[in-house]
Automatic annotation (TrEMBL):
An annotated Gene Ontology molecular function: helicase activity
Species per Swiss-Prot/TrEMBL record: Actinoplanes derwentensis
Domain named Schlafen AlbA-2: residues: 36-113
Protein name: ATP-dependent DNA helicase RecG
Keywords: ATP-binding, Helicase, Hydrolase, Nucleotide-binding
InterPro entries assigned: RecG_C_sf, Schlafen_AlbA_2_dom, Schlafen_AlbA_2_dom_sf
């Protein structure tokens, strides 16, 4: 870390008033803190982060320095080496305010190498994870999840010993076999039904008996919850934005259901319940205005499929249901078990990666139809990209994904991203025709978002990074987006001076200051030079200058001519 980078980081810490998710500050004046290994483990098991030794958080992040920087560097390196697996941190000394500060960057470990833990304590006692500005011990379930992620999972092919073939729906199984024999080649036409189901892992041998696998029971079972009562879905509709807060009539819930059955049946019933509790609204799609549910049906279906298919089926998680929670401002779907394999939250929807802890379940469901004939899942790794595209077409904000190791949550905000105000704002910019992904990105940037190539793809459903680069470049060339950085660190945001039209439209004065309104009214009769505005308003030159620049940023006035020219005029 260079001095300027450290200065910027220190300034942000002072502004925030505390260390945070990716930064841990220690005074370390009397030597290396004994708990430093906890932060190293936590950063390695999370998103990585900086360790800063020689800064006192309690005194407003005063730089106090360390006594022996070289020895401190060596001690931090030794702690990193004592972790399992060893942590390869970048440890340096920064000279700042005539004092030495030791700064180390701990990179995140690949998912299949976690949990990073203190070797002498073992993974169960020696693993930590970063939560806000602190380090928390991983629970036994979280440790088991991370250890299990290092190997291929087989929970979905284990026998359900208490079940029999008669617990499967014969009609649905017959339809599945017909499709298999029509699409999977001649091998399944040469064997009987039982042998085919054994080959497809719908059935398995349990001693001298043939019984359903967990995957077979969940897909084709008449009532799988007879054997696994908690492998179902709960749907709760809340009247307010916070669970536990009653509605205006004292009601705790608007709807509260426990949904049982096979996976296809549960998905269909959940969608019906949510639609009964949803409103319809008008949205802009291209040049048309159409009525649509608050959440597009295909988006809900994909999210439910993901939750039910990718959830953890280990013994630790069999007691946790898939939880669907609808609030006035959002829809949340949560399942047991975080992401599996080489998938990270930031890459979801940006590339076609198929990585699942339930490979057999996925394989069966790609040949299992809903009642409308569409297969339950495609098993091609493009489902989230399709979800993002559907949300973009509906003019809605992209979902938020949260991986908490033990759970995975997708949350859909309940508001249109491309609403009337935003569309009017885009029109006012005088841009050439935009594609939907560019419109979505501009709408996000308008709310303060800073995008990268990856987050652009995640937010819009664009999968090709080259396409994303081209579309972002077009926005930069138009002058409304500012590019900063280079290569992998390039960011994009609304360019300074771009009108925002945050409230109302130009021509209204409800959100202007009193001085801005006086300047605005002075332009009723046509363009004026700044000197004439000063005379008309009686305001000082400095107040008029600030007022005109503010009105310009808000999109209420424009400058005709060059700013320093005597012929320059201000106009509405």
């Amino acid at each position: 870390m260079e001095n300027q980078e450290f200065a910027d980081l220190l300034a942000s810490l002072r502004l925030q008033g505390a260390d945070h998710f990716t930064c841990e500050v220690k005074r370390a004046k009397g030597g290396m803190p004994v708990s430093l290994w906890e932060s190293i483990s936590a950063f390695a098991n999370s998103a990585g982060g900086h360790l800063i030794l020689g800064v006192d958080e309690k005194s407003g992040f005063t730089v106090v320095g360390v006594d022996d920087a070289a020895a401190m560097e060596a001690q931090v390196g030794a702690v990193c080496a004592d972790m399992e697996p060893p942590v390869r941190a970048d440890i340096r000394t920064v000279r700042f305010a005539d004092k030495n500060v030791v700064v180390g960057f701990v990179p995140p470990l690949p998912r299949d190498q976690r949990p990073c833990h203190k070797r002498v304590l073992g993974p169960w006692a020696g693993s930590r994870i970063r939560v806000a500005d602190g380090d928390r011990r991983l629970t036994d379930y979280e440790v088991s999840i991370l250890l299990a992620n290092r190997t291929v999972q087989h929970h979905d092919v284990k026998p359900v010993s208490a079940a029999t073939v008669d617990d499967l729906d014969p009609e649905v199984v017959a339809g599945f076999l017909r499709r298999i024999r029509a699409t999977k080649g001649p091998v399944f036409g040469r064997v009987d039904d039982q042998q085919a189901l054994l080959m497809l892992n719908v059935l398995t041998r349990d001693g001298d008996r043939v019984v359903p696998t967990l995957a077979g029971l969940l897909v084709f079972g008449i009532y799988p919850q007879s054997f696994e009562p908690q492998l179902n879905v709960t749907v709760v509709v809340y009247p307010t934005g916070e669970p536990g807060t009653s509605g205006k009539f004292g009601e705790r819930f608007l709807d509260n259901r426990s949904v049982d059955g096979s996976i296809p049946a549960m998905i269909a019933e959940c969608i019906d319940i949510l639609k009964r509790n949803m409103r319809r609204r008008s949205i802009v799609s291209g040049i048309y205005r159409v009525d649509e549910w608050e959440y597009p049906e295909e988006v809900i279906r994909e999210a439910l499929v993901n939750a039910l298919v990718h959830r953890d089926h280990s013994s630790f998680a069999r007691g946790m249901q898939v939880q669907v929670e609808m609030y006035p401002d959002r829809l949340s779907i949560r399942n047991a078990g975080g992401l599996f394999g080489p998938v990270e939250v930031g890459s979801l929807g940006t590339r076609s990666v198929t990585s699942s802890r339930n490979r057999t379940l996925l394989k069966i469901l790609e040949d299992t139809p809903f009642s409308d004939g569409h297969m339950v899942c495609e098993n091609r790794g493009t489902g989230i990209a399709q979800m993002l595209m559907a949300l973009g077409s509906a003019g809605m904000e992209p979902p938020r994904f949260t991986d908490d190791v033990s759970t995975f949550t997708v949350e859909f905000p309940n508001h249109a991203l491309l609403d009337e105000k935003t569309l009017h704002w885009m029109t006012s910019l005088g841009l050439p025709p935009l594609v939907r992904s560019q419109m979505t990105a501009l709408a996000l940037m308008r709310t303060g978002a800073v995008l990268t190539n990856k987050s652009y793809r995640t937010s819009t459903g664009v999968q090709d990074s080259r396409v994303a680069t081209r579309e972002l470049r077009e926005l930069v060339d138009s002058g409304v987006v500012e590019q900063a950085g280079s290569r992998g660190s390039t960011t994009y945001r609304i360019a300074p001076g771009t009108p925002t039209l945050e409230e109302g439209q130009p021509g209204t004065t409800g959100r202007l200051t009193s001085n801005e309104r006086r300047i605005w009214r002075a332009l009723d009769d046509g363009p004026l030079p700044r000197a004439d505005i000063e005379v008309a308003t009686g305001l000082s030159v400095d107040i008029v200058k600030r007022g005109l620049q503010s009105l310009r940023r808000k999109g209420f006035v424009t400058l005709i001519g060059q700013q320093r020219s005597r012929d320059a005029r201000w106009a509405k």
